Amino acid sequence: MKTTNHMMIAAVSIVLVALVGAGIFAAFALTRDSDEGPYTVAHMDADLKTPGKVVWAHRGGSAEFSEMTMHAYESAVGLGCKVLEVSVWRSSDGVYIMSHDQTLTRVTGQTYDIPSTDSATLLGMPVTAPVADGGVIGRLEDLLAAHGKDRVLVIDDKQGANKDDLTALVESHYDSAKEAAEHVVWKVYGVSPRAVEWETAGYHTWSYLYNDEVNAVTPQQASERSYFGLNWDAPQANYDTLLAFGKPIIAHVIQSKEQADVALSRGAVGLQSAVPSVTCKQPAK
């Protein structure tokens, strides 16, 4: 029996050595197994010290699944994604609908303006962009209930006018505001002053930028947010400008491993990815 066990251990060791040599084991080692417990902002901050280890599922996987649907988010989680990015609009009856656009035209083919339409009309509508895979229009509350306590959620208030109400809704899904801040990062465009309000309340914020906005960021503004976002193909000079502030850069929006490699080579440490099947299971090295 001992001989058999020794032979099995030796065989496993040989396989592991072979995998490491091929670079496969190293890639999968970057993901955190789902049975290791809840993933928090503190875990994410620690993982950001290893470039490419932190991957945010952009809209749940905006190039692979029906975007911002529970089907997309569950698929991303199944692929190993620990951070889920979502945008919301408030319906006419006060329900936060998961959608990047103000209207549902692009993703459903139906022209409904979210702020002026009641949630009963919107919820459950089939989403067909980028693919029709059974995903339907859903609520932020659904995502909070499913993964608010085991993943990090990056939430974007697209209307930009619902901070207090939206924060109250989010915090109602946690035992305390402190616990909410352990799982939620607020996404803001540019150097919006809303970042200051959320940071003051104990949250982390992510300010995403594009090339023509980088040089306008001041040291004071940089100190008022936790992370920066930059388009993955930004020139090295723009990466260097943001890196000088000492804040982690999460590159957006990654569509391939090649794009991930470019962003990481220029100084990004995290990736906002449209292709979780590529980046979440096999982060770029």
Architecture overview:
It is a single chain. This protein has 14 helices and nine strands. The protein has 285 residues and is of the alpha/beta class. It is globular and about 50 Å long. The model is unreliable at 1-35 (pLDDT under 50).
Q: What attributes does this structure have?
A:
285 residues; alpha/beta; 8-stranded parallel beta barrel; 14 helices; 37% helix; globular; disordered N terminus
The total strand number stands at 9
Into which percentage range does the β-strand content fall? 15-25%
Helix/strand order: HHHEHEEHHHEHHEHEHEHEHEH
Unreliable spans are 1-35
What CATH calls the topology of the largest domain is: TIM Barrel
The first-level CATH class of the largest domain is given as Alpha Beta
Class by helix and strand content? Answer: alpha/beta
Mean pLDDT: 89
Radius of gyration (CA) equals: 20 Å
Q: Distance N terminus to C terminus?
A: 40 Å
Short description:
With 285 residues, the protein is an alpha/beta fold. It is built from 14 helices and nine strands.
SSE layout and pairing:
Elements: H1 2-22, H2 24-28, H3 41-47, E1 54-57, H4 70-78, E2 83-90, E3 96-98, H5 105-108, H6 119-122, H7 140-147, E4 152-157, H8 163-171, H9 177-181, E5 184-189, H10 194-200, E6 204-209, H11 219-223, E7 227-231, H12 236-243, E8 249-254, H13 257-266, E9 270-273, H14 276-279
Parallel strand pairs: 1-2, 1-9, 2-4, 4-5, 5-6, 6-7, 7-8, 8-9
Antiparallel strand pairs: 2-3
